[in-house]
Specification:
This protein is of the alpha/beta class. The protein has helices spanning 13-24, 75-87, 131-147, 165-179, 212-225, 259-268, 286-289, 320-336; strands at residues 3-8, 29-36, 44-47, 50-56, 68-71, 91-94, 125-127, 149-158, 231-238, 245-253, 272-274, 295-302, 309-316. The protein binds 5'-O-monophosphoryladenylyl(2'->5')adenylyl(2'->5')adenosine and trans-cyclohexane-1,4-dicarboxylic acid. Trans-cyclohexane-1,4-dicarboxylic acid (L14) binds at residues 97, 130-131, 158, 162-163, 202-203, 213, 216.
Length: 340
């Protein structure tokens, strides 16, 4: 038996990837309904060789009959429409930041806290964490279970695809202008020029002078790991990369643990691939992980400032494991647990 699946924000970067991932994993789709804004009404997208027309979300009279709704159309759309899908009987897996910190909404990374999924009944919404948080906790959890983790200092190198399809085009256009000696078009979707630059500003600035993206890495990590004492200090930086987020992660562990032990623990961990052979010049790169569903880790070494501590380099495809793949894994878990 299959399910009636809706994709909201289907024409976006994450939306299109939802379709690819559902197809690749042979998700039991009986029927597919695609929604986006009115701008995209009437466009078609292909799933398993068949064309589906995109509907305007605002014009849908009801959402009855949908079993699972995968959302990636921004926070304001999720805030307004996720409860309506839920009321009409669907379970919503939401990719925006709108519901993540709601105590009635589970925030799930299947490799880390699959058991939390059971607690979705009150709102019938399950939140997909922030992309940078997902890839970090997939690597953190096995180390946490083995040796404890007290503190994390992380700097991210985030690709433009995190800011959506428009930001991808912005990097392309600025780069082309620079290469042909023209004046660069003004920055619109990333706060400053991104071509040949690094911009330490993702999402909005908050009162403590951290950005909201940086505070997500603290608050979401605590919720996913069920540990309000874990400390996380992040600097989130946009870099001129199209796909794939990279992170320099420095941990203070609960007890002494050698880099060799960390490699052994991570080699056994679900969803993790260790690429770590400095002598051969092997470490994960954003350009190598594009299109992959796992989280890649390398440069594993002792941290020289935390004692005991470990430093490492963590890379994943932000549109796949950071968004679409994680959400589809949540939907698979719902089925496996008999919750839909
Ligand atoms: O509001 P936020 O939370 O700040 O989010 C802002 C943006 O960040 C992206 C996403 O952009 C979002 O709009 N984003 C959010 N969370 C993300 C995450 N976890 C994330 N990116 C990565 N990881 P996006 O452009 O990728 O996706 C936008 C999708 O949302 C639809 N949408 C917007 N407002 C809507 C709505 N749907 C329903 N109701 C609304 N009110 C949006 O639909 C899109 O599907 P659209 O019709 O506006 O589509 C935009 C046009 O863009 C073109 N296009 C998109 N991707 C590609 C593309 N063309 C070519 N190649 C592509 N890869 C389409 O042609 C479409 O017409
Ligand atoms: O999911 O990179 O909270 O601009 C919103 C900002 C995803 C990344 C989220 C970005 C993020 C996005």
């Amino acid at each position: 038996m299959g399910y009636r699946v809706a994709v909201v924000g289907a024409t976006g970067e994450v939306g299109r990837t939802f379709l690819k991932v559902l197809e690749e994993r042979n998700f039991p789709v009986d029927d597919l309904v695609l929604f986006a804004s009115e701008r995209s009404e009437g466009k078609t997208l292909t799933f398993k060789g068949k064309e589906y027309e995109v509907k305007a979300l605002t014009k849908a009279p009801s959402f009855k009959g949908i079993d699972i709704a995968l959302f990636s159309a921004g926070s304001s759309t999720s805030r307004e429409y996720a409860p309506r899908f839920a009321q009409d009987g669907a379970v919503v897996v939401d990719n925006s930041s709108a519901w993540r910190m709601d105590p009635e909404v589970p925030l799930v990374v299947p490799e880390v806290n699959p058991e939390d999924i059971r607690d979705f009944h009150r709102k019938r919404i399950i939140a997909n964490p922030n992309c940078s948080t997902i890839q970090m906790v997939v690597v953190l959890k096995p180390i946490y279970d083995y040796a404890g983790v007290k503190r994390v200092v992380v700097a991210t190198y985030q690709s433009v695809s995190g800011a959506g399809a428009k930001a991808i085009r912005e990097l392309e256009e600025q780069t082309k202008a620079w290469c042909s000696g023209r004046d660069l078009p003004e920055a619109r979707h990333i706060p400053k020029r991104i071509a040949f630059n690094c911009v330490p500003h993702i999402d909005v600035f908050l009162e403590n002078d951290y950005t909201k993206e940086e505070m997500k890495m603290l608050n979401e990590t605590r919720k996913i790991m069920h540990d309000e004492n874990i400390k996380v200090s992040a600097t989130c930086v946009r870099v001129p990369v199209f796909y794939g987020h990279s992170e320099a992660v420095h941990l203070e562990t609960g007890r002494d643990i050698t880099p060799e032990e960390v490699r052994e623990v991570l080699k056994e961990a679900p969803g993790v691939v260790v690429v770590d052979d400095p002598e051969k010049g092997l470490y994960p790169l954003a350009t190598d992980v594009e299109g992959r569903d796992e989280v890649f880790v390398g440069r594993i070494r002792r941290d020289l400032s935390f004692n005991p501590g470990i430093a490492m380099w963590v890379v994943a495809d932000n549109i796949r494991k950071g968004a679409a793949t994680n959400a589809v894994q949540i939907a698979e878990l719902l089925i496996k647990e008999g919750l839909v």
